[in-house]
Amino acid sequence: MTDRAVSSALNYALTLAIATLLVTGLLIAGIDFVEARQDQVLRTELAVIGEQVAADLDRANRLAAAGDGTTAVWINQSFPERVAGARYWVRLEPETGSEPPRVVVEATDPAVTAAVRLKQTVTVAESRTDGGDVAVVYNDSGDPSTLEVADG
Prior knowledge:
43% of the residues lie in helices and 29% in strands. The protein is α+β, with helices and mostly antiparallel strands. The strands form two sheets. Strands 2, 3, 4, 5 and 6 form a five-stranded antiparallel β-sheet that branches. A three-stranded antiparallel β-sheet has the order 1-7-8, covered by helices on one side. Strand 3 and strand 4 (102-107) form a beta hairpin. The chain is rod-shaped.
């Protein structure tokens, strides 16, 4: 008779241990899935912001070229301060050798980067600004004239 009571207690303990392991495994897998999804969402949102800044750069370049002596161009656009809970910044990289200029949008936590190549006809100066209000500015004081990003 005593063997039967030990068997029930042992069966109960093993069932609890197996259930605990299964639930823990599911939680760990779920956390990894959510983190991977957050990175994917962040990368997509940064790419959208990069595309919009690239469009503003192209628009400012066309306005400056058509400006018949008027060369002051300032295009301001508001973006969210944070994307998927992460702070980010927008950086312009000028043309280097065979690489065209590009807009780089970076977040630090988690570390995610999205880059958008610009047309070869757009000349940009290396510049950087935080996310939020971003201004594209045509700077005609240098040779050649360049486009920059600044705080809006």
